User: What shape does this take?
Amino acid sequence: MPMRRWLRKPGTANAPAAPKPSSIQRAKQGAAEVIGAAIEGLAGLGAMVGAPVAALLGKLFLAAILGAVALGVFLRFAGRQRKGEPAPVKIPTPAWVRALAGLASAIEVALLVEATKLPVRHDQPGFTQANWLLVLLAWGVACALQTSWLGAAVARRRRGKPATPTRLP
Assistant: This one.
């Protein structure tokens, strides 16, 4: 007996023994282990199947985009003027519209570059020449869109008015 007293940890002399879990607790613990194993199995299966599913979805999205482009080309050709119809009068876009669209596009692209922290200077980490291609592409697209929008707005306001101002006698 005295030897057992020496082998015990201090403070455990009068500690009650841990109660055995009831059958309900054991059932809950067993169900938790089964559910955990099932979740781990599904995660492993998802990791194995994820790459082919991503490739399939990518191909489907690419097909949808190319189909939309083809539809746009088809509608463009289908909407062309038929022979015998009078051509609409095109009012030329003034030069100030192009200049204003270019300036507005430059300001917008500069704000986008600063907002996204795109590295466009040599001293910035992560700088590449391709970033400048992105900036020029964005400026070109914005400039073309704004020129067409501003030109259409000016043309709407000028309908019925002569293209050049008339002089009074």
